[in-house]
Structure formats: C-alpha cells, structure tokens
Amino acid sequence: GNSVTQMEGPVTLSEEAFLTINCTYTATGYPSLFWYVQYPGEGLQLLLKATKADDKGSNKGFEATYRKETTSFHLEKGSVQVSDSAVYFCALRADYKLSFGAGTTVTVRA
Amino acid sequence: NAGVTQTPKFQVLKTGQSMTLQCAQDMNHEYMSWYRQDPGMGLRLIHYSVGAGITDQGEVPNGYNVSRSTTEDFPLRLLSAAPSQTSVYFCASSSFLRTNTEAFFGQGTRLTVV
Questions:
Q1: Which residues does B109 contact at the CB level (< 8 Å), separation at least 6?
Q2: First-last CA distance in chain A
Q3: Is A32–B99 a contact, with Cβ atoms under 8 angstroms apart?
Q4: Residues of B with CB below 8 A from A36's CB?
Q5: Is residue B2 over pLDDT 80?
Q6: A88 to chain B: nearest residue by CA?
Q7: What is the mean pLDDT of chain A?
Q8: Which residue of A has its CA nearest to B43?
Q9: What residue in B sits closest to A105 (Cα-Cα)?
Q10: Position A25 confidence tier, pLDDT thresholds 50, 70, 90
Q11: pLDDT value of position B70
Q12: Given its phi and psi angles, is residue A11 left (phi above 0), alpha (psi -120 to 50 degrees) or beta?
C-alpha cells in the first residue's frame, strides 16, 4: 500500500536558520506529493505540491523536489522566521485517497 | 469563498452521549473524508465518500457512522461517545478524478469526551 515516512520532531530552530524536513514515500503508480502546514489552532492548508518526477514545488520560501529515484520529497527553507512555527505534514496521492506522514512540529525562536 | 465548513469548533460530551459533526463544502468535490488527529499519530482516516450515496471505512471507523445524501454534506456521527474519541477531527474534500490536485480541509472540531 501507499505510505509516507516523515522525519519526526519536534524541531527547534533559531530565526534565520536553515530548515529541512525529510520525507520518503512508498507508492504504486505515479503519486502526486504534497506538503501541508498546520498553524496553531487551525486546519491544514496546502504549502506546496509536485505532481511528477523532478518537479519542484515552492511557496513562501519553502521548496521541495520530487525525487523518484530516491522516493523522497524533502522540505527546505533557507531562512526561517518565527511565523513559520507550525506542524508540517508530508502527503501523497496515488489514487483518490491522501496518505499522510506523522507530522513534524517546528518551533522557531527569535 | 467558503471552501470546507465544519461545525462545531469545540464540543464537550459525556461518555455515552451521541452527536453529529457537520461538514459542508461548496466546491462540488466528489471525494470527502473525515480524519482524526491525535498527538504523535498524524492524521488517521475514519470514513470517506466518493460521491452521494457511497461511503466506505478508513483506518479507524469503529464508533463512527457517516452518510452522504448530497454532494455538499458529509456528517460524522458518534454513536456513543467514549473517552478514546477525544481528538481533533478534520473534514476534507477534493476532486475524485484529478488526483494531482490537493485536498481542502475544514478548521477542525476539538472534541473532549469526559
């Protein structure tokens, strides 16, 4: 079946530090890959996505590249801000269902 | 610009009570689903629906019922609440055929069963 393995947190960083959250997947077929973000007290919202191999998704300074050869979709940001404190979920969609990773809690300190 | 609307946002139940969590979407999405979010466990799929009149079980369906009488609405019923159902519940909707598109989530319902 389809599954997502995500680097577990929590992760604590200082402002302007580099952030990377690892995500690998197992899927049949050709999945689309997503990163969702959940700010405190809110629902999940799409951060970025990539729908085929070598695609790079980007938004709000975050980037992730769909690597078919390593079945990975790692999330990166070069300089984090306090406002990036949130829970980040990696997800894949190979059919109509979404499969989620366990989520990574990121805290950025001023 | 409503998207997915969930009600209520917060609820406290006594053990054994029943209730319905409401979910409505205005994007004409065929696929709707319910998740529960528990610390350290990510999101777990409870039930889902691929269209009006069609529902199926997810990973953790016990203690919950769903129905889908219209495309827009997908309520989740707790039949007899238990403390183990204390959680945050999210409803989501997405296109069924366009699997390269994202799911949209409601704001969540924080349920406490005492």
A1: B6, B7, B8, B9, B10, B11, B21, B88, B89, B90
A2: 41
A3: yes
A4: 105
A5: no
A6: B42
A7: 94
A8: A100
A9: B40
A10: very high
A11: 97
A12: beta
At residue B1, the pLDDT reads: 63
| Strands of chain A, DSSP E | 3-6, 11-14, 19-21, 23-26, 32-38, 44-50, 56-59, 62-65, 75-77, 86-93, 98-100, 104-109
Measure the CA angle with vertex A96, ends A94 and A98; round to 5°: 70
Q: Which of residues 26-55 of A touch B (CB under 8 A)?
A: 32, 34, 36, 42-46, 49, 51
Q: Please say if the pLDDT value at position B31 is more than 90.
A: yes
Give the bridge partners for B22, in sequence order: B7
What does the block give as tokens for B70?
């219209």
CB-CB contact of A104 with A20 (8 Å): no
Share of chain B above pLDDT 90, in %: 88
Place of tokens 């894949």: A92
Asked whether the beta carbons of residue B108 and residue A43 sit closer than 8 angstroms, the reply is yes
Distance CA A63, CA A42 (A): 22
pLDDT in tens, A30-65: 899 999 999 988 899 999 999 999 999 999 999 999
Which residues of chain A are within 8 Å of residue B99 when distances are taken between CB atoms?
32, 93-96
Buried-exposed string B44-80: b where 16+ CB fall within 10 A, e elsewhere: ebbbbbbeeeebeebebbeebebbbeebbebbbebee
